[in-house]
Specification:
disordered C terminus; alpha+beta; globular
Length: about 100
């Protein structure tokens, strides 16, 4: 399982447009094979601070997402010019609902 957190700082006059775009993008992304989670979060104290929480079955599913037509159009095309900054971090899940992933080793 591959987890990705994308963090965006949005231009102040663009955040409503960005939230709409990301909600539509999330819906489409959740339908992709191998995408198990795709959630959009907005800071309670700063509406221009947005985080995406994504989970994929494996690296291949993540790379297919990044090459998808909707990713290229939505994220690289429409979203990118609306951002002050962006960063991605990749994580490996260490715990599950049933306990620590290390318990199964």
């Amino acid at each position: 399982m591959l987890e990705v957190i994308a963090e965006y700082q949005v231009e102040h006059d663009k955040y409503e447009e960005v939230i709409d775009l990301l909600n539509r993008h999330a819906t489409t992304s959740r339908e992709e094979p191998g995408c198990t989670v795709f959630e959009v979060f907005q800071s309670s104290s700063d509406p221009t601070h947005v985080i995406l929480l994504e989970a994929y079955e494996d690296e291949s599913a993540y790379q297919k997402h990044r090459r998808s037509e909707h990713f290229i159009a939505n994220i690289e095309g429409t979203l990118r010019p609306c951002l002050i900054s962006r960063q991605w971090s990749r994580f490996q899940r260490l715990s599950t609902e049933s306990g620590s992933a290390r318990d199964s080793v």
